[in-house]
């Protein structure tokens, strides 16, 4: 019987398109998991693990931002496997969503070093017609869902509030195209504080959110949170790891070794020139000003949404304006 999913979780999700659910795990145990995730990052660097992402690399510090395929036997620890066994995330999804069986199609461990980070606003999927249409009662109707797992108190995103979304009463997006144009701008955009929620999770909780809603990755300092995407597996045949209570696509199986899809990015340090720029810009945001000036025409076009975030990805990045 799943008793972690409550009525107010459904209500919250229907209103906002996201919700936090506590995993009901001991705080001390979650601390152990946190340290094991740290260990995974150290191992990924020292043992040259192949799959991951680098966003803002630094001159004298390898700033590995994410580990891809985190359940793979080449990187996953016993503690993390045990964590999935205890967390029973499939059970939460089965009780929350109107699906036959959830299948995990993407899994990533975000593990940015001790830097402020902000990405650009975007949608992971472009089905804006389906936003906030989750059915009036019962389990949530949705095509895909994003799941964040938090081992420490951490904000991970800004997510646009319903009223400010395209076609709604306070919208700051003139048309569907606006969101795509914003996605192509070379510097993060800062909308009004009241237009978005800051979301993430508390230690030992998960975040469920609709990836159709306009959102922006935004973190302060280091982070260790899983980022996973699920879809309804319906009755099709999928794969399974014995430490998880949900199905996975083939390349997320812990013992999968060959023919990884091209979409899984390979860890590669950035060029020395770019690293020098990132390190310098972190303290003296001159490169941010250059990026803003370079894109000023496009920035003007979306001025109803917000202004360029000159202090993003620097020591001076603000949580709110
Ligand atoms: Fe996203």
Task: Give a topology summary.
Layout: H1 7-16, E1 18-22, H2 27-46, E2 52-53, E3 66-68, H3 78-87, H4 89-96, E4 102-110, E5 117-118, E6 144-150, E7 154-160, H5 176-183, E8 189-190, E9 196-201, E10 205-209, E11 215-219, E12 225-232, E13 239-240, E14 247-248, H6 272-283, H7 286-294, H8 296-301, E15 307-308
Parallel strand pairs: 4-14
Antiparallel strand pairs: 1-10, 2-3, 3-4, 4-12, 5-11, 6-10, 6-12, 7-9, 7-11, 8-15, 13-14
Bound molecules: fe (ii) ion (FE2).
Q: What would your notes on this structure say?
A:
With 321 residues, this protein is of the alpha+beta class. It has a single domain (7-173, 196-272), classed as Jelly Rolls, CATH 2.60.120. It contains 8 helices and 15 strands. The protein has helices at residues 7-16, 27-46, 78-87, 89-96, 176-183, 272-283, 286-294, 296-301; strands at 18-22, 52-53, 66-68, 102-110, 117-118, 144-150, 154-160, 189-190, 196-201, 205-209, 215-219, 225-232, 239-240, 247-248, 307-308. A hairpin with a 6-residue loop joins β13 (239-240) and β14 (247-248). The longest helix is centred in the first third of the chain and has 20 residues, at 27-46. Bound molecules: fe (ii) ion (FE2). Fe (ii) ion (FE2) is lined by residues 122, 124, 215.
């Amino acid at each position: 019987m799943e008793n972690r999913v409550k009525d107010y979780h459904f209500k919250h999700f229907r209103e906002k398109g996201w919700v936090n659910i506590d995993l009901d795990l001991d705080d001390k145990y979650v601390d152990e998991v946190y340290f094991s995730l740290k260990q995974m990052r150290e191992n990924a660097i020292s043992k040259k693990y192949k799959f991951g992402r680098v966003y803002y690399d630094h001159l004298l510090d390898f700033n590995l931002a994410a580990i891809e395929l985190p359940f793979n036997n080449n990187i996953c620890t016993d503690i993390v496997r045990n964590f999935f066994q205890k967390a029973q995330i499939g059970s939460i999804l089965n009780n929350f969503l109107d699906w036959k069986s959830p299948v995990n199609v993407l899994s990533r461990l975000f593990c940015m070093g001790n830097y402020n980070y902000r990405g650009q606003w975007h949608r992971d999927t472009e089905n804006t017609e389906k936003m906030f249409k989750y059915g009036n009662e019962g389990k949530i109707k949705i095509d895909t869902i994003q799941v964040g797992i938090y081992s420490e108190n951490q904000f991970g995103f800004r997510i646009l509030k319903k009223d400010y979304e395209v076609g709604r009463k306070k919208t700051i997006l003139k048309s569907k195209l606006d969101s795509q144009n914003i996605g192509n701008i070379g510097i993060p955009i800062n909308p009004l504080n009241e237009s978005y929620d800051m979301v993430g999770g508390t230690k030992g909780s998960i975040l469920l959110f609709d990836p159709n809603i306009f959102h922006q990755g935004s973190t302060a300092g280091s982070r260790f949170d899983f980022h996973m995407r699920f879809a309804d597996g319906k009755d099709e045949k999928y794969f399974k790891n014995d430490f998880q209570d949900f199905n996975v696509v083939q390349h997320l199986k812990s013992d999968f070794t060959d023919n990884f899809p091209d979409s899984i990015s390979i860890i590669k340090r950035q060029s020395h020139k770019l690293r020098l720029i990132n390190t310098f810009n972190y303290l003296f945001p001159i490169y941010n000003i250059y990026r803003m000036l370079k894109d000023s025409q496009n920035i003007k076009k979306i001025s109803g949404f917000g202004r360029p975030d000159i202090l993003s990805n620097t020591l001076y990045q603000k949580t709110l304006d």
